[in-house]
Design a protein that fits this description.
230 residues; five-stranded parallel β-sheet; binds calcium ion
Amino acid sequence: VGTHGLVLVVEDEPRIADLQRMYLAREGFGVHVETDGAAALDAARRLRPVAIVLDAGLPALDGFELLKTLRAEDDWTPVLLVTARDDEENRLRGLGLGADDYVTKPFSPRELVARLHAVLRRGAPPSSPRTVTVGPLRLDAAAHLVSVDDQHVALTPTEYALLAHLVQRPGEAVSRDELLSRVWGYTAAGGTRTVDVHVAQLRAKLGAAADLLRTVRGHGYRFDRPEGVA
Ligand code: CA
């Protein structure tokens, strides 16, 4: 296992899997490759990788089915989806199913490694641990725990980072571009669709606090304090 921990690569094309293994190993990651979805799911459960690099197009159990099954039991492991270039539909589908980010084929080694480090950072402890309570929502930044009405809410690393960014500045409108840059660590034309998909996922999980996550038309999002609460 490398110094940065073990990454599970799920890729059925040996040439691409070899490239990913080489790039990631050079970067100090341990790498375990699986070529089909069922074996990958087993490996994810067994090996508990620090992150999963997942090809969307796999034979048999495809990347999306794998992602759905994985997210049903594990919200925490960051998932970087690999899709064909110009395949926005599948990209958004993957993000909607809980992938944290994506790279498109063909990718540069630098891009793959940068995106992987960015998703790993989202799961890292914050520099200034604190607990924020806004209405029914409580976010414990030291423990990375979120609850609504004292019920634990299981979030992916990206959903957590997005929520933390908004909740720590309640009442303030934050632009999509800023969210993309601060949470995902990059800016990209059209990349703000990524933000919208994750906000939709987040709302679906927030129950009684969902209404507090407001869309600011033409700009971005805002986490409101409920009325009557200081
Ligand atoms: Ca493939």
